[in-house]
Input
Amino acid sequence: MQSKPQSQTEFIILMASLMSIVALSIDAILPALTAIGISVGIEQSTDNQLLITMIFLGLGFGQLLFGPLSDSIGRKPVIYIGFLVFVAASMLCVFATNVEMMIVGRILQGIGLSAPRTISIAMVRDSFSGDYMAKIMSFIVAIFILVPVIAPALGKLMLDTFGWRSIFNGQLLFGAFVMIWLWKRQPETLDPNHKIKLSKAIFLNGFKEFMKFKSSIAFTLISGLITGSFMVYISASQHIFQVQYNMVDEFPYLFAAMAISVGFATFLNGNFVLKYGMYTLVKTFMVLFTSISLLYLIIFFGQPNPNVYILLTFFGLQFFSIGFLFGNLRSLAMQPLGHIAGVGAAINGFVSTIMAVPIATYIGSFVKTTASPLFAGFFICGSCSLLILWVLKRKTKNLTLQTS
Output
């Protein structure tokens, strides 16, 4: 009996699930950072952030391998290869006895997970384009955001019941389920006419093609700045809420609330993007993102942390803005790159992630007694992003005048 053809809804949920393996590997261990740090010999609590930032380092470099490879052998085989790397890396984390083993395991986890993360975006670009692609991406991200909502609470439950190693085992079980689903239900999306012969020059040629599109470069750089500022929050949130505010038990629910803010905005974006367009929404919410952080700094810079509800209000507004940025920035960068979607997604992901890791590491090192350095980072990244938008608009206008 032939199985029922895949619907667009199933495609959206499956792509969100592929991305969710990454989110689960990051967010589920947040409540366990202190326990893991003690187990592997981390002495400074702020150094626990390395367990988060190092997986992003792996995500960045892995994309350079898996993106171009998927343009040659297909999307699905590359995802399977990446998952096998993730399995081996997770085992290394489970049996880690020192911080060096754990960090190597986290980097390798990131390398393996870069396959489903990057290739899912390439599969979306294979199937859709333009503002409609942004609409589909918004719905994918809206579903994907459900994982950060529940992951910290789930991680804390597993930590308290079975210990921190069970969190890594749970990630493997979820990933195996998604891989079986992908194998059984998802057709290959790479057009045979777009297949590129595997060679040493595949990435170099793709990079040269990528560099032809100023908009792809600009929106990739902005993605790196926004991802970096958001990564600071992910890596430092445990320190802020559990150490600065002494809200250990409440932390998973506070983290979930912020994820809901991003998810709600992303869902709204799916409805707004066809009416207003990606660029208009990016420009509007980039201004809002920057203004909110500036307002916080004007009121609280050099002061102790405000009441937690005030901090949550500012975080909520900040992440509501981010919800309108993530999907649209990625879609704008990918829009001209349909013919090299694998390499394009890899370069976009690599540059934005490799930018984000040092940004997050540097800013995170200042988040010790207050959350103000986090908002300073938001403001700097937002201001630089607005500058890039202004330069892009000016360059595009000049190009139009020269060619008209």
